[in-house]
Amino acid sequence: MSVLDNWKQWEDFLADRLHHAQNEGMSEGAVSNLAFQIGDYLANQVEPKNEQERILSDLWSVADKQEQQAIANIMVKLISNNGSR
Q1: Which InterPro entries match (predicted)?
Q2: What is the 3-state secondary structure (H, E, C) of the chain?
Q3: Which of 9, 15, 57, 76 has the smallest CB count inside 10 Å?
Q4: Per-residue pLDDT for 13 more than 70?
Q5: How far apart are CA 81 and CA 35, in angstroms?
């Protein structure tokens, strides 16, 4: 089973990677840029596996670049308090 199949597992996976990046000294700007790149890749290359991913994909598809960056930043905020540290 892929981490993309279950929203909670995906959220935990992202949170763990975020905390690791922060512990290694990755800047907030770099995290934000990476989140945007991941969001863009997923929206264009990966079929949503659950309701939450479908909603994000739909939002991403109608958003302009500035709004997509905001979605990416919100996802970083959402996961920043989840996962292991």
Answers
A1: DUF3243, Uncharacterised_YmfJ, YmfJ/YflH_sf
A2: CCHHHCHHHHHHHHHHHHHHHHHCCCCHHHHHHHHHHHHHHHHHHCCCCCHHHHHHHHHHHHCCHHHHHHHHHHHHHHHCCCCCC
A3: 9
A4: yes
A5: 16
